[in-house]
Amino acid sequence: MFTSADYRFMDAALALAQAQLGRTAPNPAVGCVIVRDGMITGWGATADGGRPHAERQALDRAGPHARAGRAYVTLEPCAFHGQTPPCATALIESGVETVLIACLDEHPKVAGRGVALLRDAGIAVETGLRNPEAAQLYAGFFHRLRTGQPLVYLDANSARYDAVLTDAAMHAPTTELDRLGKAGMNRVCIAPGSALATRLVEAGMATTPVTQAHTAR
């Protein structure tokens, strides 16, 4: 059972992630908060360009004050060695007692493996805290993993998107979306009412941004 403090700390992690939307491609924007004795000792969000990861930055800030603490992470910690070591391993080495995860990762190299690594190391793992909010945050990333294309949003405000679609792609929108997907773009926007926007909506290829209102806990 999550406490009111758990909700507040995960909300802080989500805010960190949301502030980095549109800046972290090809990686998703993740937020992480480290808490010990009811106080935040470390925090981080995926940096511009995708690295360093949120967990690494939060642990670096927390230092020894991560030990015996609780880590609030918006997306399941990575479990494979890419350009950086796995964040699940970093959390294990830090000595945190509990990791709370808003959303499990659909990346085939993670997809439950991060949770398994943590639990195998004796760390308590709780999932699903603020899951609806996190699922919206990572809808574009998951869409690209499944289809190879970014998710297209009808939005005149291009802030917090990886790229902008224009009517220049009118004659070959699928080709353009394929190109953007290969480039690691997760979320792209197009101005509502444009000719291409109308075409994408009719084809079921564009969606409207969802604003999640947190329920006080």
Molecular structure report:
By secondary structure, the chain is an alpha/beta fold. Helix 4 (113-120) links the parallel strand 4 and strand 5 (124-127). It contains 8 helices and 8 strands, in the order H-E-E-H-E-H-E-H-E-H-H-E-E-H-E-H. The strands form 2 sheets. Strands 2-1-3-4-5 form a 5-stranded mixed sheet, sandwiched between helices. It has helices at 4-18, 54-62, 87-94, 113-120, 131-137, 139-147, 173-182, 195-202; strands at residues 31-36, 39-45, 70-75, 98-103, 124-127, 151-154, 163-164, 187-190. The mean pLDDT is 94. Helices cover 34% and strands 18% of the residues. Helix 3 runs parallel beside helix 4.
Search tags:
217 residues, alpha/beta
Beta-strand percentage range: 15-25%
Largest sheet: spatial strand order: 2-1-3-4-5
Mean pLDDT reading: 94
Whole-Å distance between the termini? Answer: 12 Å
Order of helices and strands: HEEHEHEHEHHEEHEH
Estimated structural class:
alpha/beta
Helix count equals 8
Contiguous low-pLDDT stretches (5 residues minimum) are none
Q: Tell me about the biggest sheet?
A: 5 strands, mixed
**Backbone shape:** elongated
Helical content stands at 25-40%
Radius of gyration: 18 Å
What is the number of strand segments?
A: 8
